[in-house]
Amino acid sequence: MLKRRDFLHSAVQAVAAAGVSGNATVERSSGGIPTRTLGKTGLKVPILGYGGAALPKVWLNPLSYEERVALVRYAFDRGIRYFDTAGNYMESQRILGEALKDRRREVCLVTKVETTNPQEVRGAVEKSLRELQTDYVDILLIHGQPGLEQMTVQQAMKIHAELVKLRDEKITRFVGFSAHGHFEKALALISSGGFEVCMLSYGYLPLGYQRVYSARTIVLRDACLAKAHELGMGIVAMKVLGAGMLGAWSGYLVRDFDSEQLAELPAAAIRHVLNDPRVHVLTIGMRLTKEIDFNLAVISGDTTYTLQDRALLANFCAKLYETDRMKNMRIE
Question: Less packed terminus of the chain by CB within 10 Å, N or C?
Answer without folding.
Answer: N
